Amino acid sequence: MNTMTLWHISGWEFATLASAALLVGFSKTAVSGANTVSLAVFAAVLPARASTGVLLPLLIAGDVLAVLTYRRHAHWPTLWRLFPAVAVGVVAGTLFLVWAGDGVVRTSIGAILLLMAGVTVWRRRRAEAGEEPDAVTTRAGRIKARSYGVLGGFTTMVANAGGPVMSMYLLSAGFRKLGFLGTSAFFFLIVNVSKVPFSAGLGLIDGRSLLLDAALAVFVLPGALLGRWAVDRIDQRLFEQLVIAATVVGGVQLLLR
Question: Each residue of 44-62: pLDDT tens digit?
Answer without folding.
Answer: 788 877 888 999 999 999 9
